[in-house]
Hints:
Layout: E1 13-19, E2 26-30, E3 33-45, E4 50-58, E5 67-70, H1 75-93
Antiparallel strand pairs: 1-3, 2-3, 3-4, 4-5
Amino acid sequence: MSNESGTPPEVSALANNVAVPEELQWTDSRRDVEYRLPILNIRLLQDGSLAAKAYGRPVAGGRGGYTSFRVPESPELAALISRAADESGRLWSGHAGL
């Protein structure tokens, strides 16, 4: 479907999931349940800034879905987020269409 007006579509955010290397994974807890956090969801917002949340499942297992957590301040995680955003941009700019 083409945009006849020629104006670009409004994109509110771009998001990508990124695997956290095992040595950077951490645990957090909620309601006395411990979670291991192996995934980051990184979003590029309209203003050009990045936002990130961590997702994980209970360490003890079970059928629970992924739960989101705040990403702790860490130079290593900040570097991972920055590198992932750069790589996402490279991949998006080279897309081959549908």
